[in-house]
Design brief:
Two copies of one chain form a homodimer. By secondary structure, chain A is an alpha+beta fold. Chain A folds into two domains: 4-142, Sandwich (Jelly Rolls), CATH 2.60.120; 144-216, Orthogonal Bundle (Arc Repressor Mutant, subunit A). Chain A has helices at residues 15-24, 106-115, 117-143, 146-161, 170-177, 181-193, 209-216, and strands spanning 26-30, 35-37, 45-50, 53-58, 64-70, 75-76, 92-95, 99-104, 165-167, 197-200, 203-206. In chain A, strands 1-8-3-6 form a four-stranded antiparallel beta sheet. In chain A, a hairpin with a 5-residue loop joins strand 4 (53-58) and strand 5. In chain A, helix 2 (106-115) packs across helix 3 and helix 4 packs across helix 7.
Chain lengths: 218, 218
């Protein structure tokens, strides 16, 4: 598995570092729906080579909210929380599509990063990027009404899936947005009344993007 | 101003780096209540030498929620958002106590960090620590009821101030927790009824920590 193209700073690593990183990786395949990481352990950095992962957090009583998505070429640091002393939280990861990935062991990555300014700075940029995702999320959950958040979510999903027919249950939507299923169902019915979507079993179909965009405040 | 003791990795910087950093700093004094940074500009890294800062985020219509506090020896990266391309958000900073700090210009810090693995790794740890604060906040606002959050906040403030008599208005509490003043007032009156606190103008006095701790679920 050639991982050189996945690191924009690859050419700034020396030959030894490149070799050590390359030799350490383990390939991973997961099917859509697989739970990959539940927090607690330190499984290593995950580099997505194809597919799509969802990073989320879970409450004590099992409720969920999506933190961010990982697409092809994205790297997940927080599945390797032992890599830094100051990472004092856990995330969970599941596969939203059939996904190929590689795992880089935390201790190998850490030992190279400790000496390599390019790798440490690259890691900084990756973390800042996730930090920006999470700050966006705080903005959403604190200040945006649920109708806006749901409309925005549906438009984003249609964009990711490249389809206006979304195969997703009300419960799954609730797990993304951190709301109970009933709240999702109630709001979707309101969207139906507005002529924005059509519902059928396990499917939400967007029939008027403009109305939805207006609700989302775009 | 000797900043060497503020960086645990100071001895891993070379003489030139130490000199460049030291020579770049500008001292800063703010009185309690001063607004220090409102986002938008890139004023540099702030290193608190004494006092206390509050980092918070503001909604489009001016509502606030506290993200984290900065105490003596803490460093704020996000007042230097131009330091990394991937920092795509703004925070605001105000002084909660009379505060002495130094500012390190973003371009100087960045130029050293690009070449110094120790400084880049230290920056990583600082960011991971703030990331942990913000993940804790998401957990609080998503899954904890307001009575628990408010009780927890009052106990934390008493701990920070080392006093059970807190000079704070209901509006200020609302700005910390991201809730309207009326919601805070209503819940504080409930706490009075439970025998946990006593209210007077601009003051909340904790009269029974155990009751408050029980409400907070501690």
């Amino acid at each position: 598995m050639d991982i050189s193209t996945y690191f924009p700073i690859w050419n700034k690593l020396n030959i030894n570092e490149q070799h050590t990183l390359s030799a350490s990786v383990r390939e991973l395949h997961h099917n859509r729906g697989d739970l990959i990481h539940t927090g607690g352990d330190c499984m290593g950095l995950i580099l997505v080579t194809s597919g799509q992962l969802r990073a989320y957090t879970v409450s004590e009583d099992g409720r969920e909210i999506t933190l961010y998505r990982l697409f092809e070429r994205d790297i997940c640091l927080f599945s390797a929380s032992c890599m830094m002393n100051s990472i004092q939280f856990d995330i969970a990861l599941c596969a939203e599509k059939d996904t190929d990935a590689v795992i880089i062991p935390s201790d190998i990555y850490r030992s190279i990063m400790e000496k390599s300014a390019p790798l440490a700075n690259y890691t900084n940029e990756v973390m800042a990027s996730r930090f920006s995702d999470v700050m966006w999320l705080i903005d959403q959950i604190m200040w945006k009404s649920f109708d806006r958040r749901l409309a925005d979510f549906l438009l984003n999903e249609a964009n990711i899936e490249d389809s206006n027919t979304l195969k997703i249950t009300h419960e799954e939507i609730g797990n993304h947005l951190g709301n109970p299923r009933e709240v999702v169902t109630r709001m979707l019915k309101y969207f139906v009344g507005e002529g924005a979507v059509k519902l059928s079993r396990g499917t939400v179909e967007i029939i008027d993007e403009d109305i939805l965009a207006k609700i989302a405040g775009r």
